[in-house]
Design a protein that fits this description.
Elements lengths: L1 E4 L31 E4 L12 H8 L2 H16 L1
Antiparallel strand pairs: 1-2
């Protein structure tokens, strides 16, 4: 199992994220924030469009990249 950042939808995150927006499981206020994670089977995160912790931290440094990532994931979810 591994942490997969950026795939959690609102109120479906696992534990506190690295964004600092909340401190508990199931409390993320937004869909696909790169600072929030879900625990997934090892090897599946990349297939879902998710990020590892280093990638998530890099994106969180730039608000424009955060918005772009969230928009990309929303489009992917629509199919």
């Amino acid at each position: 199992m591994e942490k997969c950042f950026g795939i959690a939808t609102a109120h479906h995150n696992d534990c506190a994220g690295i964004s600092g927006l909340h401190s508990c499981k199931g409390t993320t206020p937004a869909n696909y924030n790169p600072g929030d994670f879900r625990v997934v089977p090892t090897g599946t995160c990349e297939k879902m469009g998710g990020l590892d912790m280093a990638q998530a931290k890099a994106i969180l440094k730039n608000p424009a990249k955060v918005k772009a990532f969230e928009a990309k994931m929303e489009e992917k979810a629509k199919g």
